[in-house]
Amino acid sequence: MNLFIKLHPKSLAWYISEKDFGVVQVSKSFKVSSGLFYKLIKGITDRHKDIVNVIIEKPYLRLNGDDRKRLARDIIHIQRLFGSLLSWLEYFFPAAEIIQLSARVARKSAYNTESISKDQQLSEIAVILPSVKQLDYCTIELFCIHDCLVLKRAYEQRSAR
User: Fold this and answer.
1) What digits encode the pLDDT tens for the residues 83-131?
2) In what order do the strands lie in the sheet with 2-7?
3) Is 27 helix (H, G, I), strand (E, B) or coil?
4) Angle CA 151–45–125, to nearest 5
5) Cα 38 from Cα 41, distance rounded (Å)
6) What backbone torsions phi and psi does residue 77 show, to the nearest 5 degrees?
7) Largest Cα–Cα distance of the chain, in whole Å?
8) What is the C-alpha to C-alpha distance for residues 77 and 95, in angstroms, rounded to an integer?
């Protein structure tokens, strides 16, 4: 069984199956977020002892914008959170292979293009995961779940080769 993870500055999304996926809010506090990651991954471990691969999207970090100081702080925060997440994954899934994919590589592999429209993302998630309509996710959270599905498709295509 595989676990797919997307870390966004405001949330963390995961996908295991059509019945086991979700999103949790990421805090500005490193300590709070790291504790949240611990609880989330422990809960996944309790439900699924057979995780063989963890496929995680590498965060895309860049300093574009006017407030470079704030952007730099945000990048450092995401890097620290990503490190914490990787540590908990290693702790709870010591035998699993942790595979990091960039969003660009995943989209290129899954769609043969580097970008897809927001409308396409939202319509795909509604078709692939119809139960998502009953959940109270905001648009950015839906995009994060969709990114997990893109990771899944890219991983499956890479494995098929």
Assistant:
1) 999 999 999 999 999 999 888 888 888 888 777 888 888 888 888 887 8
2) 20-25, 11-17, 2-7, 53-58, 97-102
3) coil
4) 30
5) 5
6) -60, -45
7) 46
8) 28
CB 142 within 8 A of CB 125: yes
Q: Exposure of 125 by Cβ count < 10 A (0-12 exposed, 13-18 middle, 19+ buried)?
A: buried
HEC profile of 37-67:
HHHHHHHHHHHCCCCCEEEEEECCCCCCCCC
In this structure, the chain runs to a length of 161
pTM over 0.85: yes
Q: What is the pLDDT of residues 27-82, one digit of tens each?
A: 889 999 999 999 999 999 999 988 999 999 988 766 566 777 877 888 888 899 99
What token pair was written down for 56? 């995680």
